Amino acid sequence: MHTQRHPLVSTTLGTSRELASFHFGDAANGESVYLQASLHADETPAMLTAWTLKQRLAALEAEGRMRGEIVLVPVANPIGLSQHVLGQFLGRFEANSGHNFNRDFPMPSAAALIERVGARLSSGDAAHNARLLRGALVEMLGETTAKNEFESLRLALLGLASKADVVLDLHCSLEATMHIYTSPASWPAIEPLARYLGANGVLLATDSGGQSFDEVHALLWNELRERLGDATPLGAPNIAATIEHRGQRDVDYDTASHDAEAIVDYLIARGVIEGEAKDAPPLAQAATPLAGSQQLTAPASGIVVYRAKVGARLQAGDPVFDIVDPVTDSVTTVTTANGGVFYMRRAVRFVYAGAPMGRVTGEKAIRSGVLIGA
């Protein structure tokens, strides 16, 4: 293992931060995999999983079992880690700008990449074309000048991930079951990981509308393929997914060890780590469209009493939560229109009218436009 330090632009006099990446194996020998954790800095279960994974990868490398390259960034957001206000940890949005740390990632356009490589593209070598375009992508990101700390963090993360065949972004939700967001194109390659992790929900979308970290990689290669057409074949370095490691309070060694071992099993199955791949268990739940998930909202303000457990399989019409008004004594029950998994919910127990309260998977698309929240 070797460590690289990536200094970020200083925000104010007397301050400095850096990003640390840990590198295992060699991309010249096989596939390259990039993993990062806690881009939303207050999503600690992902960070503990990444730390546990780092110990396992170091041991596996010492045994000579690396057959590709693995780049791990266990603390993907040192800016957000410093944001505490009156005892509250605020890691989802950058305090200076209000920007969500995992939205609107700036990638070079497919047209600009194709223009840069020009006539060097091959009419018959898909792997050559992928290497060429990937190299151009890394060059263009490296030529971009960050104006502030926030932009420099984004560029550093994109630069590391853009070299990889597989990009895994480790997160968690508020209160949730293990679930995964990925694209239909990436899903066949991600399915074994969902099995090893025991994902209780898989949400598929080609473009959820937020330009999140994992999606910008897949979307760029989709656009490149479309522009190049059949006459210029292109490999597929666009396997990307967001892994939601349950809820923010699910922080313990046993859970982190389970998830880290599942990722190792997946990397063995892909041939990035030498070893005999374990049989993947059955998929806990079939993948469903993100556009099919029902977004439950609070119809009134009051005390929230959840009647469905997170991770429960619900039928249409089942009660999900009550809202109790202690002044008027009214109790409002919210039910689900979907039959599916109640895969995430809010952690607070007093809400305002219109607050997003949770989501239930669904097999049929019922939404369009931007499919993810702020």
TrEMBL record:
Molecular function (Gene Ontology), one example: hydrolase activity, acting on ester bonds
Entry protein name: Succinylglutamate desuccinylase
Database matches in Gene3D superfamilies: Zn peptidases
Listed transmembrane segments: none
Domain Succinylglutamate desuccinylase/Aspartoacylase catalytic: 30-206
SUPFAM superfamilies with a match to the protein in the record: Zn-dependent exopeptidases
A Pfam family the protein falls into: AstE_AspA_cat
The species this protein was found in: Caballeronia zhejiangensis
Cofactor(s) annotated in UniProt: Zn(2+)
PANTHER family membership: BLL3975 PROTEIN (PTHR37326)
Keyword line: Hydrolase, Metal-binding, Zinc
